[in-house]
Amino acid sequence: MRPANEALIVIDVQNDFCPGGALAVPDGDAIVPRINALLGEFQTRVFTQDWHPADHASFAANHDGRNPHEVIDMPYGPQILWPVHCVQDTPGAAFHPDLDVAKADHIVRKGFRPEIDSYSAFFENDHETPTGLDDHLSARGIDKLTMVGLAMDFCVLYSALDAVRLGYGVTVLEGACRGIDLNGSLEDARATMLDATIVLEP
Ligand code: VGL
Ligand code: ZN
């Protein structure tokens, strides 16, 4: 068992990010058995869940004439537009059916404000509106995080970068992540993580 100052953060292992889903990450479901095994190793286990209203600003369908993967300017900076995904209370937003959700001790829902996206488990995409996860972890004396999940080049990346910025030691288990890989984003994410002193392990 890992010591009490460590937590496992399981990012967005939801049906819409798995094969057959609206924003499927190639092979996204392949990580579920490994994550289930890891859940038994950690005393603190936090899951995140992308949780958008149907009118969310990150959906291309909500912008006239826009297609998924186009970039628009939002008040908080550039925003990639996505297919409609992880709409609150739909099957696509549910966790993968094989994921051992009963082992989660805290679930962070993010991206529920219509006007702002939230890749990171810690802050919305303005990089300042907190989700409450930092308070939850620091109140429990946790300073070391292991991150796994989907997608390695978006929500895992931004969560890991914010965690380092907040002072956590961060390890990303690449073998328990999969990426969307938009225009080389997966290799860019690896390089950005290494630059930020995030430890990448298989
Ligand atoms: C994600 C794009 C849009 C993710 C969420 O979980 O990585 N990516 N929403
Ligand atoms: Zn999303």
Automatic annotation (TrEMBL):
Keyword Metal-binding: yes
Record-stated family: Belongs to the isochorismatase family.
Keyword Hydrolase found: yes
Listed pathway(s): Cofactor biosynthesis; nicotinate biosynthesis; nicotinate from nicotinamide: step 1/1
Natural source organism: Rhodovulum adriaticum (Rhodopseudomonas adriatica)
Protein's name according to its UniProt entry: Nicotinamidase
Gene Ontology terms describing biological process: pyridine nucleotide biosynthetic process
GO function term, MF aspect, one: metal ion binding
Gene3D superfamilies: Isochorismatase-like
EC code(s) of this entry: 3.5.1.19
Residue ranges occupied by any Isochorismatase-like domain in the UniProt entry: 7-183
Matches recorded under Pfam families: Isochorismatase
InterPro entries cross-referenced by the UniProt entry: Isochorismatase-like_dom (IPR000868), Isochorismatase-like_sf (IPR036380), Isochorismatase_Nicotinamidase (IPR052347)
UniProt KW keywords: Hydrolase, Metal-binding, Pyridine nucleotide biosynthesis
